[in-house]
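Students often ask why we bother predicting the structure of a whole assembly rather than each chain alone. The short answer is interfaces. A chain on its own may look different once its partners are present, and contacts between molecules only exist in the joint model. In this exercise we take two input lines together and write out one structure for the complete complex. Read the inputs first and try to guess which parts will touch.
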Amino acid sequence: MTLYTLLRSLAATLPALLLSACVSVVSIESSESTKGEAAGAAKTSGAGMPAAPAYPSTYQPLPGGTFLIRNATLLIGNGERMDGGDLLVRDGLIAAVGRGLEAPEEAEVIDAAGRWVTPGIIDVHSHLGVYPSPGVQPHADGNEMTDPVTADVWAEHSIWPQDPQFTRALAGGVTTLQILPGSANLVGGRGVVVKNIPNRTMQAMKFPDAPHALKMACGENPKRVYGKGKKKAPMTRMGNVAGYRKAWIKAVEYRRKWQEYERKRAAGDSRAKRPKRDLEMETLVAALEGRVKVHMHCYRADEMAVIIDLSREFGYQVAAFHHAVEAYKIADLLAENGICAAMWADWWGFKIEAYDTVRENVAMVDKAGGCAIVHSDSPVGIQHLPQEAAKVMTASTRKGYRVDRAHAMRWLTLNPARALGIDDRTGTLEAGKMADVVLWDGDPFSVYTHVERVWIDGALAWDRADPRYRPQTDFELGLGPVEEARP
Amino acid sequence: MTARHALLFCAMLLAALPLHARTLAFVGATVHTLGPEGSLGDATVLITDGVIEAVGRDLPLPDGAEVIDARGKVITPGLFAATSQLGLVEILLVEETVDDRQNDPRIGAAFDIADVVNPDSSLIPVNRIDGVTRALTMPRSGDGVFAGQAALMHLGGGLEPVTHRRVAMVATYGESGARLAGGSRASALARLAEALEDADDYRAHRGDYLRARRYPYAISRLDLEALQPVLRGEMPLLVHAHRASDILAVLRLARRFELQLVIAGAEEGWQVADRLAEARVAVIVDPLANLPRRFESLHARSDNAGILWRKGVTVAFSVYRTHNLRNLRQAAGNAVAAGLPWEAALEAITLNPARIWGVEESLGSLEPGKAADLVVWDGDPLEMTTTAEQVYVAGRAVPMESRQTLLRDRYWDLDRPLPPAWYRR
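Now the answer. The structure tokens for the assembled complex follow.
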């Protein structure tokens, strides 16, 4: 469950529901398909996994056209800024960025004087759809709290595409989000990257060819959920680490069996016995091989350092530590190891492992040369991510590490895209990338600024001025006062 | 404010006093007084002995005044959290550090947190360096519909932060109230009414009750006593209610017992704004609550505060987490983005909480005679790109440091020769 729901429910609630956040999951691909999606994309035959993806994306962009945004303040997303810039979109892609661009004949021209344009915002840590609104128990689909290792579950199989929270996030400029299982478990399952176009099916939202995540979790949550209450490991942080190690040992062994089988088959041994498929192991092996990105909920610096060694012990790479409240204490270590840190601007104190927050955390990771990300883990926070970045930008600049708006935009666009493995396709305003674009009526870091329009893959998805482009999910239809009755 | 409150307030000011009269003069700032003077450019604020003496343009500076150059700065009243659990919660999931709720069925209305507010809470400095100077701190609901009594506190430091005790009675209705009362809203309403009826009967027959000559009451003697000021209309009853029809039900209850009512939550308050205005009931809302998080708040919308304000309802703001009361100004800024006038948004985090809790004569705005709670900002306080440069509580500059700034400073440079623990402070 998200921290948000977690804390909300605390008012009168079940300790068991208290788990939050991140567990990673790796994906397994099923047999029949051709074009790799996500984790399945790699054509490796390792561990007997089918090369093609299961539950493939059926995402289709909304209908779009050619348009030219003129004379805007462009924050490119990679740290650069262009005042008085133009952006040309054609065929769903960014065709050109520059000054004084020619408008093709068919192009709609949007005069954006006084307005700002940024890449679509990317949230690496969301539970929209798996902990939707209304947050009633039958909707609580984000934590498979039945075993500390549930590498076999996939968040995408829990997503309710009618969650009204998607549309609110869209109004906040969020075009891409990673939906993760919660952090109750050591290994929580696979996460999935979606385009923020709520549709009839989850598959229709899946970001084409984005790697899956493996959600894992450090610290308090797994030991609180299991341990004493359930008389089951883990009960301690050392129990947590033992749990990860046992899981990885099994995965290594599973991979070895499949490699042996494949070697025998290749050598012409037709009697070689095919190992039995194991969903959990397929996901873990995919993570070992880098086809699935490991995203790990981890607050404390010392625990992150242990996890880095754990990843070396078994030969995998952590893509990002999520929540990473103490990332600033080991910012150098994170940078050296090429691990992103995804953080809140100021959340703290709900658990003792979240006691040492500093407002400059994100900037201190950045300053050490690391990959810093502002994430939400909240259906409210996801609507205001630039405001969260603004808090950090301001505090850091005051302390002496100057961060300007163009640079801070990296924390919301390019860096999250990098952690998700989709930075070659989205996350910046550069020619050739998906036209995931937000038009703001002012400085995006101001509380007063509104998102005017959002385009996803070059198609208008949200428009503040046009009710036809303010999508409303099924759940909200016909409940309560009709629009006319509203003041 | 009552005489007792006034005494306490004065005692607090005295405790804050230096040995001799001292005048501070802030010169050249844009001052948002929230009083009759409104907003003034290039203005002067004079403070003597922790109290605002004058605010205006071209004020003569008294001899010996300490002059603070505030040109280019913005001065507002200190931020006032209309609700919180400040001093009652340190770490939410470490139960030893949480005093804001309890499960003894004998204590509901009588649960009074004034004496247990922790003056050493790390939440106090974290929030005050971002401008929060006052807070209502209150219980969360435990096992009954009455959660207990709230207190007012300052964030200026010292061992006795509570300035006003028994400021409000807190109760829960709606989905949570129903759950606490046995499953239905109807049972929650019955429990609320029963407690008030019992307390009223007790008032009239206290002697008989003590001689065991009355029918058995549903609530304990302590709770009966605690509800007396509520029945007298002296202590506001703060009720958590969210659905429009739930707000109406609570309004009916308040009318029946002639209570002074305040509604917290009120995500659907916009639908009954006229009724709230007519009943002169104030609301405390979270401007970021725009999601149908529960069935009782399906019609939450971001312009709730603006609609309520336009209908004449007194509106204050809350944030979801006590740990980050500092985000009240973000809440206010977002309310402005959703249509609330800027001054009304600032009022919702300064003067209106003081009004709602009956301390507007001494707190909440920059007017002569009021406590000198103020913040010097380097820009628009509702913007996240603005910083509180110096915060004053009752005229005293608070240290602009917290556990979080100390941690930051310790780790700002990771290349130091010794492990962090050797850098004491």
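Check your guess against this: The longest helix of chain A spans residues 237-266.
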